[in-house]
Design goal:
With 102 residues, the protein is an alpha+beta fold. It contains 3 helices and 3 strands; from the N terminus they run βααβαβ. The chain has helices at 35-46, 50-63, 73-89; strands spanning 22-28, 65-72, 95-100. The protein binds L-tyrosinamide (TYC).
Length: 102
């Protein structure tokens, strides 16, 4: 075997796969939106079961806010907008916001 056939291994490179940044959708409490309406919006927009939606509604009611779900930025913003619009269309101040995950 001649020297010319000896190869040195290529340096191992680590492929940089950026993780997509995730955003939380947060439900905010208010004093006016009926509990059942909040539950209905959570079921409709976030595809929650009755039990899940009731739990999230109750947490927001008791603590002031509750994380609903985590999505990519565009999905989080669109769902938050849709859910907030449902409230406004029905005369309620129901509010959802988005926040970048650390
Ligand atoms: N606090 C409201 C009430 O007592 C119910 C409610 C719960 C509203 C959660 C908003 O995010 C909310 N009717």
């Amino acid at each position: 075997m001649s020297d010319s056939t000896i190869t040195t291994p290529k340096p191992k490179t680590r492929a940089k796969t950026e993780r997509p940044k995730l955003y939380k959708v947060i439900l905010l409490n208010d004093d006016f939106t009926p509990r059942e309406f909040v539950v209905a919006v959570l079921k409709r927009v976030f595809r929650m079961s009755e039990a899940e939606a009731h739990g999230v509604m109750l947490t927001a009611h008791q603590l002031g806010a509750c994380v609903v779900a985590v999505y990519t930025k565009e999905v989080a913003q669109e769902k938050s907008r849709q859910a907030t619009d449902f409230g406004r269309d029905n005369g309620y101040p129901l509010a959802f916001t988005t926040e970048k995950e650390d």
